[in-house]
Amino acid sequence: SLNCVEWSLLPPVTEEMVAQAEQLKGRFQGDPSFEYEYTEINAEDAERLFEDGKEPMIKEEARLVATIEQIDRAVGIVPRGAFVKTPLGSVHENRNFEGLSLMEAKKLSSYFHFTEPVNLKNKTLLEKADLDPSTDFLDSLEHDIPQGSWTVQPEKGGTVVVLRSLLWLGLTFYHVPMTKQYGYVYFGTGEKNFDLPFML
Q1: Do 100 and 180 belong to one domain?
Q2: How many domains does the chain have?
Q3: pLDDT given at position 163
Q4: This prediction's pTM
Q5: Which cellular component appears as one GO term in the record (predicted)?
């Protein structure tokens, strides 16, 4: 939206858009039609783009879509047990989920990335033996690299637990223990924090 009254849907994301957006640095301009030129594109890629009839540039609208996808992949999370995996492999919202206890909600291991698991496939059979296949089918935040890229803070006297990402500054996840209430919101510049390893 340009005026916060009329809203438009964003186009669907493609892997090409994500790859192009990863090459860009700096803040957003606020104009969906603004075109970024690649400053750090190598000669081969530029020549290939010209041969395909494309100029080496990306619109801000495409960059926004790709950045949202990157943020969702990297820091889109859910509490343990909020979703279940059936023996046939389909994933459903757990209607019996009543929230995490306050003790569990304070642990990073109680939260999972809501994307296709990567680290889970690399675990040994001995490590997988302690996992419940119906609830532990996603990657836990406790194994994120670098270690310490998340902060967990109980707030309002322990009635809300807040997780913040130090990799994507501005991402805040909340969960109200013993309830089904959880969610996340991102208010940031759309830039990944590449200084994180030096901050830890």
Answers
A1: yes
A2: 2
A3: 93
A4: 0.78
A5: kinocilium
129 and 51 in a common domain: no
- pLDDT at residue 175, rounded to an integer: 95
The answer to whether the beta carbons of residues 98 and 194 sit under 8 Å apart is no
pLDDT attached to residue 177: 93
Residue 36 sits in the same domain as residue 98:
no
Do 75 and 168 meet the contact criterion of CB atoms below 8 Å apart? yes
DSSP one-letter string for 128-186: HHTS-TTT--S-BGGG-SSTT-EEEEEETTTTEEEEEESSSTTEEEEE-TTSS-EEEEE
Question: Which letter, b or e, does each residue of 106-141 get, where b requires 16 or more Cβ atoms within 10 Å of its Cβ?
Answer: ebbebbbbbeeeeebeeeeeeeeeeeeeebbbbbbb
Report pLDDT for 194: 86
CB 38 within 8 A of CB 46: yes
Assess whether 99 and 181 both reside in one domain.
yes
Cα–Cα dist 9/1, whole Å? 9
Query: Would 9 be classed as within a structural domain?
Result: no
Q: Which of 27-31, 56-60, 171-175, 188-192 has the lowest mean pLDDT?
A: 56-60
Is pLDDT at 43 greater than 80 in this prediction? Answer: no
Structure tokens at 177: 């223990």
pLDDT classification of 104: cutoffs 50, 70, 90 = very high
Supply angle C-alpha 162, 168, 171, rounded to 5.
30
DSSP 110: G
| Final residue in a domain of this structure, among 55, 74, 93 | 74
